[in-house]
Amino acid sequence: MGRALFIHAEWDTEAGVWVAMSDDVPGLVAEADTFEALSAKLDRLLPELLQANGYCGDPHVVFELLARRYAVAHLAGAP
Fold first, then answer.
1. What's the CA gap between 72 and 79, in Å, rounded?
2. pLDDT at position 45 over 60
3. What is the Cα–Cα distance from 36 to 18, expressed in whole angstroms?
4. Residue 2: is its pLDDT beyond 70?
5. Is the terminal CB of the chain with fewer CB neighbours within 10 Å at N or C?
6. Does residue 77 lie in a domain region?
7. CA-CA distance, 16 to 7, in Å (whole number)?
């Protein structure tokens, strides 16, 4: 197996979805309501995009999905 493809996902507060993109996979933009649904979508979408981009390497594509979501926690008694 080659190196893992790096995919980053961020929570889009306005749209209420996770959005995934990658410099390693041209054309990849995917969104889903939950992180789990996004991961499942990538399992299906990655092979299609890689083949469309002429990938002919290892049939087992390893990818790292890193998610980031900003949030605010409030201390008890804070205004």
1. 13
2. yes
3. 10
4. no
5. C
6. no
7. 19
